[in-house]
Write a structure and sequence with these properties.
Number of helices: 29
Largest sheet: 4 strands, antiparallel
Shape: extended
Strand order of the largest sheet: 1-2-3-4
Organism: Proteiniclasticum ruminis
Protein name: SWIM-type domain-containing protein
Radius of gyration: 34 Å
InterPro entries: Znf_SWIM
Keywords: Metal-binding, Zinc, Zinc-finger
GO molecular function, one term: zinc ion binding
Distance between the termini: 109 Å
Length: about 550
Protein backbone atom coordinates (compact mmCIF):
# COMPACT_ATOMS: atom_id res chain seq x y z
CA UNK A 1 0.00 0.00 0.00
CA UNK A 2 1.20 3.52 -0.79
CA UNK A 3 2.61 5.29 2.25
CA UNK A 4 0.42 8.38 1.72
CA UNK A 5 -2.77 6.30 1.51
CA UNK A 6 -1.82 4.30 4.61
CA UNK A 7 -1.39 7.57 6.51
CA UNK A 8 -4.62 9.14 5.22
CA UNK A 9 -6.71 6.01 5.91
CA UNK A 10 -5.47 5.64 9.50
CA UNK A 11 -8.16 5.95 12.24
CA UNK A 12 -8.59 9.42 13.77
CA UNK A 13 -7.66 8.28 17.28
CA UNK A 14 -4.38 6.82 16.00
CA UNK A 15 -3.62 10.06 14.13
CA UNK A 16 -4.21 12.13 17.27
CA UNK A 17 -1.84 9.95 19.27
CA UNK A 18 0.79 9.93 16.46
CA UNK A 19 0.76 13.73 16.18
CA UNK A 20 1.19 13.96 19.94
CA UNK A 21 4.27 11.70 19.74
CA UNK A 22 5.73 13.88 16.97
CA UNK A 23 5.04 17.05 18.92
CA UNK A 24 6.82 15.59 21.96
CA UNK A 25 9.81 14.53 19.80
CA UNK A 26 9.40 10.97 21.04
CA UNK A 27 10.87 9.35 17.91
CA UNK A 28 14.62 8.85 17.90
CA UNK A 29 17.38 6.66 16.40
CA UNK A 30 15.88 6.34 12.90
CA UNK A 31 17.85 4.02 10.58
CA UNK A 32 17.26 3.04 6.95
CA UNK A 33 19.14 0.06 5.55
CA UNK A 34 18.27 -2.28 2.68
CA UNK A 35 14.70 -0.91 2.41
CA UNK A 36 14.17 -1.52 6.12
CA UNK A 37 13.15 1.57 8.10
CA UNK A 38 13.68 1.23 11.84
CA UNK A 39 13.18 3.57 14.79
CA UNK A 40 13.00 3.65 18.54
CA UNK A 41 10.02 5.54 20.07
CA UNK A 42 9.81 6.54 23.72
CA UNK A 43 6.21 6.29 24.96
CA UNK A 44 6.40 5.42 28.63
CA UNK A 45 8.99 2.87 27.59
CA UNK A 46 11.04 2.24 24.43
CA UNK A 47 9.30 0.54 21.50
CA UNK A 48 10.98 -0.66 18.31
CA UNK A 49 9.30 -0.07 14.92
CA UNK A 50 10.20 -1.86 11.66
CA UNK A 51 8.76 -0.90 8.26
CA UNK A 52 9.73 -2.60 4.99
CA UNK A 53 9.58 -0.06 2.13
CA UNK A 54 9.86 -0.44 -1.62
CA UNK A 55 9.42 2.59 -3.92
CA UNK A 56 7.38 4.49 -1.32
CA UNK A 57 5.15 1.48 -0.81
CA UNK A 58 4.81 -0.19 2.58
CA UNK A 59 5.23 -3.94 2.23
CA UNK A 60 5.02 -4.83 5.93
CA UNK A 61 5.34 -3.26 9.38
CA UNK A 62 5.58 -4.22 13.06
CA UNK A 63 6.00 -2.58 16.46
CA UNK A 64 7.13 -4.10 19.76
CA UNK A 65 4.17 -2.48 21.56
CA UNK A 66 1.96 -5.35 20.37
CA UNK A 67 2.20 -8.82 18.88
CA UNK A 68 -0.33 -8.14 16.14
CA UNK A 69 0.16 -6.47 12.78
CA UNK A 70 -1.82 -3.33 13.54
CA UNK A 71 -0.96 0.23 12.59
CA UNK A 72 -0.24 1.60 16.05
CA UNK A 73 0.44 5.31 16.79
CA UNK A 74 4.20 4.61 16.97
CA UNK A 75 4.27 3.23 13.42
CA UNK A 76 2.03 5.98 12.09
CA UNK A 77 4.19 8.69 13.70
CA UNK A 78 7.30 7.18 12.06
CA UNK A 79 5.58 7.06 8.64
CA UNK A 80 4.44 10.68 8.99
CA UNK A 81 7.94 11.80 9.92
CA UNK A 82 9.52 9.76 7.09
CA UNK A 83 7.01 11.10 4.53
CA UNK A 84 7.91 14.65 5.57
CA UNK A 85 11.70 14.21 5.50
CA UNK A 86 13.30 10.85 4.53
CA UNK A 87 16.98 10.27 5.31
CA UNK A 88 19.65 8.89 2.97
CA UNK A 89 22.53 8.06 5.26
CA UNK A 90 22.46 5.08 7.57
CA UNK A 91 22.86 5.78 11.27
CA UNK A 92 25.00 3.08 12.87
CA UNK A 93 24.32 2.32 16.51
CA UNK A 94 27.30 2.57 18.81
CA UNK A 95 28.11 -0.87 20.20
CA UNK A 96 29.43 -1.00 23.77
CA UNK A 97 32.76 -2.76 24.26
CA UNK A 98 31.44 -5.27 26.76
CA UNK A 99 29.02 -7.16 24.50
CA UNK A 100 27.76 -10.73 24.58
CA UNK A 101 29.44 -11.97 21.38
CA UNK A 102 29.01 -15.61 22.23
CA UNK A 103 25.51 -16.20 23.58
CA UNK A 104 26.54 -19.60 24.91
CA UNK A 105 29.34 -18.14 27.03
CA UNK A 106 28.93 -17.83 30.74
CA UNK A 107 27.80 -14.29 31.65
CA UNK A 108 30.05 -14.31 34.73
CA UNK A 109 33.11 -15.11 32.57
CA UNK A 110 32.34 -12.24 30.21
CA UNK A 111 31.88 -9.76 33.07
CA UNK A 112 35.00 -11.04 34.86
CA UNK A 113 37.02 -10.63 31.68
CA UNK A 114 35.97 -7.01 31.12
CA UNK A 115 37.99 -4.27 32.78
CA UNK A 116 36.44 -1.58 34.97
CA UNK A 117 36.23 1.06 32.22
CA UNK A 118 34.44 -1.35 29.86
CA UNK A 119 31.89 -2.30 32.52
CA UNK A 120 31.17 1.34 33.33
CA UNK A 121 30.67 2.15 29.64
CA UNK A 122 28.41 -0.88 29.23
CA UNK A 123 26.23 0.07 32.23
CA UNK A 124 26.00 3.70 31.10
CA UNK A 125 24.95 2.61 27.61
CA UNK A 126 22.19 0.48 29.12
CA UNK A 127 21.03 3.41 31.21
CA UNK A 128 20.88 5.67 28.15
CA UNK A 129 18.86 3.10 26.17
CA UNK A 130 16.59 1.93 28.98
CA UNK A 131 15.83 4.55 31.59
CA UNK A 132 13.47 2.33 33.51
CA UNK A 133 14.55 -1.29 33.12
CA UNK A 134 12.25 -2.72 35.86
CA UNK A 135 9.18 -1.22 34.17
CA UNK A 136 10.32 -2.46 30.76
CA UNK A 137 10.77 -6.00 32.07
CA UNK A 138 7.31 -5.99 33.62
CA UNK A 139 5.76 -4.69 30.40
CA UNK A 140 7.74 -6.97 28.07
CA UNK A 141 7.17 -10.15 30.05
CA UNK A 142 3.68 -9.54 31.39
CA UNK A 143 2.51 -12.66 33.13
CA UNK A 144 -0.77 -13.68 34.71
CA UNK A 145 0.47 -12.70 38.18
CA UNK A 146 -1.50 -9.43 38.19
CA UNK A 147 -4.72 -11.21 37.19
CA UNK A 148 -4.16 -13.93 39.78
CA UNK A 149 -3.35 -11.43 42.51
CA UNK A 150 -6.46 -9.32 41.82
CA UNK A 151 -8.67 -12.41 41.59
CA UNK A 152 -7.40 -13.77 44.94
CA UNK A 153 -7.75 -10.39 46.65
CA UNK A 154 -11.27 -9.97 45.28
CA UNK A 155 -12.34 -13.44 46.46
CA UNK A 156 -10.99 -12.75 49.95
CA UNK A 157 -12.72 -9.37 50.17
CA UNK A 158 -16.03 -10.75 48.89
CA UNK A 159 -15.83 -13.63 51.39
CA UNK A 160 -15.36 -11.15 54.25
CA UNK A 161 -18.10 -8.89 52.88
CA UNK A 162 -20.67 -11.69 52.61
CA UNK A 163 -19.92 -12.56 56.23
CA UNK A 164 -21.08 -9.12 57.38
CA UNK A 165 -24.49 -8.81 59.02
CA UNK A 166 -26.03 -5.99 61.09
CA UNK A 167 -25.67 -8.27 64.14
CA UNK A 168 -22.03 -9.23 63.40
CA UNK A 169 -19.41 -8.62 66.08
CA UNK A 170 -17.01 -5.70 65.96
CA UNK A 171 -14.15 -8.11 65.19
CA UNK A 172 -15.83 -9.30 61.96
CA UNK A 173 -16.34 -5.73 60.76
CA UNK A 174 -12.77 -4.81 61.74
CA UNK A 175 -11.40 -7.78 59.79
CA UNK A 176 -13.21 -6.61 56.64
CA UNK A 177 -12.24 -2.95 56.99
CA UNK A 178 -8.62 -3.85 57.78
CA UNK A 179 -8.43 -5.98 54.62
CA UNK A 180 -9.76 -3.05 52.56
CA UNK A 181 -7.19 -0.72 54.12
CA UNK A 182 -4.46 -3.31 53.53
CA UNK A 183 -5.41 -3.48 49.84
CA UNK A 184 -5.39 0.31 49.77
CA UNK A 185 -1.85 0.40 51.16
CA UNK A 186 -0.82 -2.23 48.60
CA UNK A 187 -2.23 -0.04 45.79
CA UNK A 188 -0.30 2.98 47.08
CA UNK A 189 2.88 0.89 47.29
CA UNK A 190 2.47 -0.43 43.74
CA UNK A 191 1.94 3.12 42.41
CA UNK A 192 5.07 4.26 44.23
CA UNK A 193 7.02 1.37 42.71
CA UNK A 194 5.67 2.43 39.28
CA UNK A 195 3.72 -0.78 38.80
CA UNK A 196 0.84 1.30 37.52
CA UNK A 197 -1.18 -1.59 36.12
CA UNK A 198 -1.54 -3.39 39.44
CA UNK A 199 -2.20 -0.09 41.24
CA UNK A 200 -5.03 0.73 38.80
CA UNK A 201 -6.56 -2.73 39.08
CA UNK A 202 -6.43 -2.57 42.89
CA UNK A 203 -8.12 0.84 43.01
CA UNK A 204 -10.83 -0.41 40.64
CA UNK A 205 -11.37 -3.42 42.89
CA UNK A 206 -11.58 -1.19 45.97
CA UNK A 207 -14.06 1.06 44.18
CA UNK A 208 -16.19 -2.01 43.45
CA UNK A 209 -16.11 -3.14 47.10
CA UNK A 210 -17.16 0.23 48.56
CA UNK A 211 -19.92 0.48 45.94
CA UNK A 212 -21.58 -2.68 47.31
CA UNK A 213 -24.60 -2.12 49.62
CA UNK A 214 -23.52 -0.91 53.06
CA UNK A 215 -24.08 -3.13 56.11
CA UNK A 216 -24.72 -0.84 59.07
CA UNK A 217 -23.79 2.79 59.70
CA UNK A 218 -20.05 2.15 60.09
CA UNK A 219 -19.95 0.48 56.70
CA UNK A 220 -21.94 3.36 55.16
CA UNK A 221 -19.59 6.01 56.56
CA UNK A 222 -16.51 4.04 55.48
CA UNK A 223 -17.84 3.55 51.94
CA UNK A 224 -18.95 7.19 51.58
CA UNK A 225 -15.49 8.46 52.48
CA UNK A 226 -13.32 5.99 50.61
CA UNK A 227 -15.26 5.93 47.35
CA UNK A 228 -14.05 9.50 46.78
CA UNK A 229 -10.51 8.56 47.82
CA UNK A 230 -10.37 5.74 45.26
CA UNK A 231 -11.85 7.92 42.52
CA UNK A 232 -9.21 10.59 43.13
CA UNK A 233 -6.43 7.97 43.17
CA UNK A 234 -7.34 6.85 39.63
CA UNK A 235 -6.85 10.32 38.10
CA UNK A 236 -3.02 10.47 38.16
CA UNK A 237 -2.77 6.81 37.08
CA UNK A 238 -4.67 7.69 33.88
CA UNK A 239 -1.66 9.76 32.77
CA UNK A 240 0.68 6.74 32.78
CA UNK A 241 1.57 4.63 29.75
CA UNK A 242 0.08 1.15 29.31
CA UNK A 243 0.71 -1.56 26.74
CA UNK A 244 -2.12 -2.99 24.64
CA UNK A 245 -2.39 -6.01 26.92
CA UNK A 246 -2.39 -3.85 30.07
CA UNK A 247 -5.12 -1.59 28.69
CA UNK A 248 -7.17 -4.65 27.86
CA UNK A 249 -6.90 -5.86 31.48
CA UNK A 250 -7.93 -2.43 32.79
CA UNK A 251 -11.02 -2.19 30.59
CA UNK A 252 -11.96 -5.82 31.27
CA UNK A 253 -11.87 -4.97 34.98
CA UNK A 254 -14.06 -1.90 34.37
CA UNK A 255 -16.58 -4.01 32.45
CA UNK A 256 -16.63 -6.65 35.22
CA UNK A 257 -17.46 -3.94 37.79
CA UNK A 258 -20.26 -2.52 35.65
CA UNK A 259 -21.75 -6.01 35.21
CA UNK A 260 -21.56 -7.04 38.87
CA UNK A 261 -22.83 -3.85 40.54
CA UNK A 262 -26.56 -3.41 41.02
CA UNK A 263 -26.37 0.04 42.58
CA UNK A 264 -24.93 2.20 39.79
CA UNK A 265 -25.28 5.56 41.54
CA UNK A 266 -21.51 6.15 41.45
CA UNK A 267 -20.72 4.43 38.16
CA UNK A 268 -21.03 7.53 35.95
CA UNK A 269 -18.25 9.23 37.90
CA UNK A 270 -16.04 6.17 37.46
CA UNK A 271 -16.79 6.00 33.72
CA UNK A 272 -15.85 9.65 33.32
CA UNK A 273 -12.52 8.99 35.04
CA UNK A 274 -11.83 5.86 32.99
CA UNK A 275 -12.37 7.77 29.74
CA UNK A 276 -8.92 9.27 30.29
CA UNK A 277 -7.36 5.78 30.06
CA UNK A 278 -8.32 5.43 26.37
CA UNK A 279 -5.25 5.43 24.10
CA UNK A 280 -6.00 2.97 21.27
CA UNK A 281 -8.96 1.99 19.09
CA UNK A 282 -9.33 -1.23 21.09
CA UNK A 283 -9.55 0.78 24.31
CA UNK A 284 -12.22 2.95 22.72
CA UNK A 285 -14.23 -0.08 21.55
CA UNK A 286 -14.03 -1.76 24.98
CA UNK A 287 -15.03 1.45 26.73
CA UNK A 288 -17.88 2.24 24.33
CA UNK A 289 -19.34 -1.27 24.73
CA UNK A 290 -19.22 -0.89 28.52
CA UNK A 291 -20.91 2.51 28.30
CA UNK A 292 -23.79 1.07 26.27
CA UNK A 293 -24.05 -1.91 28.61
CA UNK A 294 -24.48 0.39 31.62
CA UNK A 295 -26.96 2.63 29.79
CA UNK A 296 -29.24 -0.32 29.02
CA UNK A 297 -29.44 -1.46 32.66
CA UNK A 298 -32.83 -1.00 34.30
CA UNK A 299 -31.24 0.10 37.59
CA UNK A 300 -29.68 3.26 36.11
CA UNK A 301 -31.49 6.39 37.29
CA UNK A 302 -32.68 8.99 34.73
CA UNK A 303 -30.12 11.52 35.98
CA UNK A 304 -27.28 9.02 35.46
CA UNK A 305 -28.63 8.15 31.99
CA UNK A 306 -28.35 11.83 31.09
CA UNK A 307 -24.72 11.82 32.22
CA UNK A 308 -24.05 8.71 30.13
CA UNK A 309 -25.55 10.36 27.05
CA UNK A 310 -23.28 13.35 27.51
CA UNK A 311 -20.32 11.00 27.95
CA UNK A 312 -21.24 9.33 24.65
CA UNK A 313 -21.38 12.79 23.05
CA UNK A 314 -17.84 13.50 24.29
CA UNK A 315 -16.60 10.18 22.90
CA UNK A 316 -18.06 10.87 19.47
CA UNK A 317 -16.48 14.32 19.41
CA UNK A 318 -13.15 12.83 20.53
CA UNK A 319 -12.91 10.62 17.44
CA UNK A 320 -14.05 13.36 15.08
CA UNK A 321 -17.64 12.19 14.55
CA UNK A 322 -19.12 15.65 14.99
CA UNK A 323 -22.28 14.97 12.95
CA UNK A 324 -23.17 11.86 14.97
CA UNK A 325 -22.51 13.83 18.17
CA UNK A 326 -24.79 16.67 17.05
CA UNK A 327 -27.50 14.15 16.10
CA UNK A 328 -27.27 12.59 19.57
CA UNK A 329 -27.62 16.05 21.07
CA UNK A 330 -30.68 16.84 18.91
CA UNK A 331 -32.34 13.54 19.87
CA UNK A 332 -31.87 14.21 23.61
CA UNK A 333 -32.58 17.91 24.19
CA UNK A 334 -33.51 17.40 27.86
CA UNK A 335 -30.00 16.30 28.93
CA UNK A 336 -28.84 19.03 31.39
CA UNK A 337 -25.34 19.20 29.89
CA UNK A 338 -26.78 19.84 26.43
CA UNK A 339 -29.10 22.51 27.86
CA UNK A 340 -26.14 24.09 29.62
CA UNK A 341 -24.22 24.15 26.32
CA UNK A 342 -27.19 25.87 24.67
CA UNK A 343 -27.26 28.51 27.42
CA UNK A 344 -23.52 29.10 27.05
CA UNK A 345 -23.97 29.45 23.29
CA UNK A 346 -26.65 32.14 23.73
CA UNK A 347 -24.53 33.85 26.38
CA UNK A 348 -21.50 33.90 24.08
CA UNK A 349 -23.58 35.55 21.35
CA UNK A 350 -24.92 38.20 23.75
CA UNK A 351 -28.49 36.81 23.80
CA UNK A 352 -28.85 37.20 27.57
CA UNK A 353 -32.63 36.86 27.89
CA UNK A 354 -32.72 33.67 25.80
CA UNK A 355 -29.93 32.23 27.95
CA UNK A 356 -31.78 33.25 31.12
CA UNK A 357 -34.92 31.34 30.03
CA UNK A 358 -32.91 28.12 29.61
CA UNK A 359 -31.10 28.67 32.93
CA UNK A 360 -34.32 29.16 34.92
CA UNK A 361 -35.82 26.08 33.32
CA UNK A 362 -32.65 24.18 34.33
CA UNK A 363 -32.95 25.44 37.91
CA UNK A 364 -36.54 24.22 38.13
CA UNK A 365 -35.70 20.78 36.73
CA UNK A 366 -32.58 20.36 38.90
CA UNK A 367 -34.78 19.77 41.95
CA UNK A 368 -32.66 18.49 44.83
CA UNK A 369 -29.64 17.70 42.70
CA UNK A 370 -27.43 20.25 44.49
CA UNK A 371 -24.43 20.08 42.13
CA UNK A 372 -26.57 20.75 39.08
CA UNK A 373 -28.61 23.39 40.89
CA UNK A 374 -25.47 25.28 42.02
CA UNK A 375 -24.10 25.24 38.49
CA UNK A 376 -27.30 26.74 37.07
CA UNK A 377 -27.51 29.35 39.85
CA UNK A 378 -23.98 30.56 39.20
CA UNK A 379 -24.82 31.02 35.53
CA UNK A 380 -28.02 32.90 36.45
CA UNK A 381 -25.97 35.16 38.73
CA UNK A 382 -23.50 35.94 35.93
CA UNK A 383 -26.34 36.78 33.50
CA UNK A 384 -28.09 39.04 36.03
CA UNK A 385 -24.79 40.81 36.66
CA UNK A 386 -24.48 41.50 32.92
CA UNK A 387 -28.08 42.75 32.89
CA UNK A 388 -27.28 45.08 35.87
CA UNK A 389 -30.25 43.62 37.76
CA UNK A 390 -28.86 44.07 41.26
CA UNK A 391 -32.00 43.12 43.18
CA UNK A 392 -32.38 39.71 41.51
CA UNK A 393 -28.59 39.17 41.62
CA UNK A 394 -28.70 39.55 45.42
CA UNK A 395 -31.59 37.07 45.66
CA UNK A 396 -29.70 34.44 43.60
CA UNK A 397 -26.63 35.01 45.82
CA UNK A 398 -28.77 34.27 48.90
CA UNK A 399 -29.85 30.95 47.34
CA UNK A 400 -26.22 30.01 46.70
CA UNK A 401 -25.26 30.94 50.27
CA UNK A 402 -27.96 28.68 51.69
CA UNK A 403 -26.29 25.88 49.68
CA UNK A 404 -22.95 26.68 51.32
CA UNK A 405 -21.39 28.56 48.38
CA UNK A 406 -19.20 31.22 50.02
CA UNK A 407 -17.70 32.16 46.63
CA UNK A 408 -21.08 33.63 45.64
CA UNK A 409 -20.70 36.16 48.49
CA UNK A 410 -17.21 37.26 47.39
CA UNK A 411 -18.37 37.50 43.75
CA UNK A 412 -21.24 39.78 44.80
CA UNK A 413 -19.08 41.96 47.03
CA UNK A 414 -16.68 42.67 44.15
CA UNK A 415 -19.53 44.05 42.02
CA UNK A 416 -21.14 46.33 44.65
CA UNK A 417 -19.74 49.79 45.44
CA UNK A 418 -18.50 50.41 49.04
CA UNK A 419 -21.22 53.04 49.50
CA UNK A 420 -23.99 50.50 48.80
CA UNK A 421 -22.38 47.46 50.39
CA UNK A 422 -23.50 47.93 54.01
CA UNK A 423 -27.19 47.88 53.03
CA UNK A 424 -26.70 44.81 50.82
CA UNK A 425 -24.77 43.04 53.60
CA UNK A 426 -27.59 43.65 56.09
CA UNK A 427 -30.13 42.18 53.65
CA UNK A 428 -28.04 39.05 53.19
CA UNK A 429 -27.05 38.43 56.79
CA UNK A 430 -30.59 38.94 58.13
CA UNK A 431 -32.05 36.41 55.70
CA UNK A 432 -33.47 33.52 57.75
CA UNK A 433 -32.34 30.85 55.27
CA UNK A 434 -28.76 32.18 55.29
CA UNK A 435 -28.81 32.21 59.11
CA UNK A 436 -29.71 28.52 59.17
CA UNK A 437 -26.32 27.75 57.65
CA UNK A 438 -24.81 28.50 61.08
CA UNK A 439 -21.69 26.35 60.81
CA UNK A 440 -20.95 27.22 57.18
CA UNK A 441 -20.92 30.43 55.22
CA UNK A 442 -22.76 32.49 57.87
CA UNK A 443 -19.76 32.41 60.20
CA UNK A 444 -17.30 33.10 57.37
CA UNK A 445 -19.30 36.14 56.26
CA UNK A 446 -19.55 37.79 59.71
CA UNK A 447 -15.81 37.18 60.23
CA UNK A 448 -15.02 38.68 56.83
CA UNK A 449 -17.09 41.75 57.74
CA UNK A 450 -15.59 41.85 61.29
CA UNK A 451 -19.14 41.89 62.66
CA UNK A 452 -18.32 41.29 66.35
CA UNK A 453 -21.90 41.78 67.54
CA UNK A 454 -23.25 38.96 65.40
CA UNK A 455 -20.18 36.80 66.08
CA UNK A 456 -20.83 37.10 69.83
CA UNK A 457 -24.46 36.02 69.33
CA UNK A 458 -23.25 33.13 67.17
CA UNK A 459 -20.77 31.97 69.82
CA UNK A 460 -23.44 32.19 72.54
CA UNK A 461 -25.12 29.31 70.64
CA UNK A 462 -21.84 27.56 69.73
CA UNK A 463 -19.51 27.91 72.73
CA UNK A 464 -16.92 25.51 71.27
CA UNK A 465 -15.69 28.36 69.02
CA UNK A 466 -14.90 30.80 71.85
CA UNK A 467 -11.19 29.80 72.21
CA UNK A 468 -10.68 30.57 68.53
CA UNK A 469 -12.35 34.02 68.64
CA UNK A 470 -11.90 35.25 72.24
CA UNK A 471 -8.96 37.52 71.35
CA UNK A 472 -10.93 39.00 68.44
CA UNK A 473 -14.02 39.78 70.58
CA UNK A 474 -12.00 41.48 73.35
CA UNK A 475 -11.90 44.25 74.43
CA UNK A 476 -15.20 45.45 72.86
CA UNK A 477 -17.14 42.54 74.37
CA UNK A 478 -14.70 41.57 77.12
CA UNK A 479 -17.24 40.80 79.85
CA UNK A 480 -19.55 38.75 77.63
CA UNK A 481 -16.73 36.86 75.89
CA UNK A 482 -14.96 36.14 79.21
CA UNK A 483 -18.16 34.71 80.70
CA UNK A 484 -18.60 32.39 77.69
CA UNK A 485 -14.93 31.33 77.90
CA UNK A 486 -15.25 30.54 81.62
CA UNK A 487 -18.36 28.39 80.96
CA UNK A 488 -16.58 26.59 78.13
CA UNK A 489 -13.55 25.85 80.36
CA UNK A 490 -15.72 24.34 83.10
CA UNK A 491 -17.68 22.21 80.64
CA UNK A 492 -14.54 21.00 78.87
CA UNK A 493 -12.85 19.93 82.11
CA UNK A 494 -15.27 17.00 82.45
CA UNK A 495 -13.66 15.23 79.47
CA UNK A 496 -10.10 16.45 80.11
CA UNK A 497 -7.67 13.66 80.89
CA UNK A 498 -3.90 13.83 81.10
CA UNK A 499 -1.24 16.52 81.29
CA UNK A 500 -1.77 17.85 77.77
CA UNK A 501 -5.50 18.47 78.32
CA UNK A 502 -4.83 20.08 81.73
CA UNK A 503 -2.21 22.43 80.28
CA UNK A 504 -4.62 23.44 77.52
CA UNK A 505 -7.30 24.34 80.11
CA UNK A 506 -4.71 26.35 82.04
CA UNK A 507 -3.82 28.27 78.86
CA UNK A 508 -7.49 29.18 78.42
CA UNK A 509 -7.77 30.33 82.06
CA UNK A 510 -4.62 32.42 81.55
CA UNK A 511 -6.42 34.33 78.78
CA UNK A 512 -8.87 35.59 81.44
CA UNK A 513 -5.96 36.96 83.49
CA UNK A 514 -4.32 38.52 80.44
CA UNK A 515 -7.50 40.43 79.52
CA UNK A 516 -7.94 41.75 83.07
CA UNK A 517 -10.55 39.25 84.32
CA UNK A 518 -8.53 38.29 87.43
CA UNK A 519 -11.54 37.65 89.67
CA UNK A 520 -13.28 35.53 87.03
CA UNK A 521 -10.03 33.64 86.49
CA UNK A 522 -9.74 32.88 90.22
CA UNK A 523 -13.39 31.87 90.43
CA UNK A 524 -13.00 29.59 87.42
CA UNK A 525 -10.01 27.84 89.02
CA UNK A 526 -11.84 27.33 92.32
CA UNK A 527 -14.94 25.99 90.52
CA UNK A 528 -12.78 23.50 88.64
CA UNK A 529 -11.05 22.36 91.83
CA UNK A 530 -14.36 21.89 93.64
CA UNK A 531 -16.14 20.15 90.73
CA UNK A 532 -13.28 17.80 89.83
CA UNK A 533 -11.77 16.90 93.20
CA UNK A 534 -10.10 13.72 91.93
CA UNK A 535 -8.03 15.46 89.22
CA UNK A 536 -5.07 16.35 91.46
CA UNK A 537 -2.70 16.99 88.54
CA UNK A 538 -5.13 19.57 87.20
CA UNK A 539 -5.25 21.24 90.62
CA UNK A 540 -1.46 21.57 90.72
CA UNK A 541 -1.28 23.21 87.28
CA UNK A 542 -4.14 25.61 88.04
CA UNK A 543 -2.80 26.67 91.44
CA UNK A 544 0.63 27.32 89.94
CA UNK A 545 -1.06 29.58 87.35
CA UNK A 546 -3.09 31.34 90.04
CA UNK A 547 0.01 32.01 92.13
CA UNK A 548 1.88 33.47 89.15
CA UNK A 549 -0.88 36.07 88.68
CA UNK A 550 -1.45 36.82 92.42
CA UNK A 551 -0.43 40.23 93.82
CA UNK A 552 3.21 40.41 94.85
CA UNK A 553 2.60 42.85 97.66
CA UNK A 554 0.04 43.18 100.48
CA UNK A 555 -3.57 43.67 99.45
CA UNK A 556 -4.43 47.34 99.10
CA UNK A 557 -8.10 48.19 98.64
CA UNK A 558 -8.89 50.78 96.03
Amino acid sequence: MKMTKLISDAPELTKIKAKKLLKENSIGKITYRKNLLQARTEDGMDYIQKILLEDQEVKSYSCSCNHEEILCPHLLALLMKWAEKPIKEVTVDKTPKATLKNTKSNLKEILDGADKEELIEFILSLRSYYKDIPVIIRKSFLSSTDEEFIRETREELLSLYHGLKPTSSKEIFSRYFNKLLSAHEEARHEAKERNYLRATLLYLLLFEMVSLPSVGMESFLFNSHYIKVYQEALFPLAEKKYTVRESQMIFESLRSICVSLKDLSNITTLLRIMKDYITTEKDFDHYYETLLLVYEKDTVLPYDKNNLLYLEYELLMMIGKAEEAKELRRENPSVPEFRFMDAESYLGRGKLHEALLIVRDGIEKAGRNWDELIRWLYMEASILKLLHNQEQYVEVTKKLLTLGEYRAYTDLKRTISPMEWHGIYEKIIEDEEVKKNLKGVYKRIILEEKDKRRLLAYIEENKEFIPEHYDFLSPEYNLEASRILSEFIEDSASSANGKRDYEYLAQLVEKLYIYGQTKLGNDTIMNLVMRYKNKKSLHAILFELKDSYSQSGPYMPE
